Amino acid sequence: MKKSFAVMFLCFLVAGLLHAEVLLDQTFDDASGKMSPGKLLKRVNLVTVEPGPAAMGGTPAAHFLDSSAEETGILEYNLEKAGAFLISFDVLNNTPAAEDGFRLIFGMGKDDQSKSVKLGSAANRAFSLEIDQLASKGLSVRIGKESAFKGSYDGASVQQVKIWVNDNDTAKLSYIRPDTKAAAQLNPDSVVVWINDKLVADESDSGVAMQTVVSVGDAVLARLGFVSQSKGTADFWIDNLHVESVSP
Ligand SMILES: [Ca+2]
Ligand SMILES: [Ca+2]
Ligand SMILES: [Ca+2]
User: Fold this and answer.
1) Distance from the CA of 237 to the center of ligand 1, in angstroms?
2) Ligand that lies nearest to the alpha carbon of residue 83, given by its number in the listed order
3) What confidence tier does 206 reach under pLDDT thresholds 50, 70, 90?
C-alpha cells in the first residue's frame, strides 16, 4: 500500500516536472482598442486590438500599425525566467505589397521589468525574427545585427510561428519536430524557428547560437515581444501569442 502511494507520488512529481507551465496566453479576445501596460505587458505603442481579418479567423487580434516616421511600434512583455521556452504566435502581413515599409521584429532579451522599450535595439536582443513588410523580401533570423539565415514567406497568408529557445548554456533541449514528429535536440544557448511547421531555409533543427552578451547565464531571458523602427513603418496582425516553459 505504502509502496503504491510512493510510486503514485513519484509519477505525480515527474509529471509535474515535465509539465509545461503557461507563461503567457494572449488571444486578445477579451480586449478592444488601445492596450494598456499591466503585470506582464510592459510597454505598448501603436498597437490596438481590433476584429481580426477573416484570414486569421476573425477573432480580435493585435493590429500592429506603425505608420509614423518618428514613433516606434512596441508590444513588449516580461515573463518569468524559465531556462527554456516554446513561443508561438500567428502573424499576417496587412500590406504585403507596400514598398515603403520596414519590418516587424520579434525579439527576446534579458529579464527586465522596466517600462521602457528594450527590444528596439539589436544589442538587447538574444535573437530576432524579422519579417519584411514587402513580402517578396522575405524574412530573416538575426543574431544581433548579423543575419543567421533568411527565408521566404507568403504575404497573403497567416504565418504560424513556433520558436524554441534554450537559454541553458550547457544542456541541450529535446523537442519534437513539428513536421516529422521525430525527436530533435536544440543546442545550448540556442534558438530554432519553425514557420508553418517547417524550418526556415538553411536552418538546422539544432538551432543557431544566440547573441552571447545577452543570453549568457542559464536562465536570464524573459523579455519578449514585437517592435518596429522609428523611421520605418510596419503594418501587421498578431494573434495567439502563447509562451510556455519547457523542460529539457
Ligand atoms: Ca484572437
Ligand atoms: Ca543562456
Ligand atoms: Ca515608425
Assistant:
1) 10
2) 2
3) very high
pLDDT cut 90: percent of the chain above it: 90
Cell of 215: 543570453
The alpha carbon torsion through 79, 80, 82, 88 (nearest 10 deg) reads -20
Instruction: Give the distance (Å) from ligand 3 centre to CA of residue 180.
Output: 40
Output the CA 41–ligand 3 centroid distance in Å: 20
Ligand nearest to the CA of 126: 2
Is 142 a domain residue? yes
Tens of pLDDT, residues 53-112:
999 999 999 999 999 999 999 999 999 999 999 999 999 999 999 999 999 999 999 999
**On the CB side of 160, how many CA atoms lie within 13 Å of its CA?**
8
Separation of 44 CA from ligand 1 center, angstroms? 18
Per-residue confidence band for 19, with pLDDT thresholds at 50, 70 and 90:
low
Q: Locate 236 and state its grid cell.
A: 501587421
Q: Is the pLDDT of residue 18 over 60?
A: no
Per-residue pLDDT, 248: 72
63 CA → ligand 1 middle, Å: 11
Q: What spacing in Å lies between the alpha carbon of 147 and ligand 1's midpoint?
A: 31
Total structural domains in the chain?
A: 1
Q: Output the average pLDDT for the chain.
A: 94
Strands (E), 67-200: 74-78, 84-93, 103-110, 127-132, 139-143, 146-151, 159-166, 173-176, 183-186, 190-195, 198-199
Task: Supply the range of the domain harboring residue 222.
Answer: 20-245
Span from the CA of 238 to the centroid of ligand 2 (angstroms): 27
CATH number at residue 62: 2.60.120.560
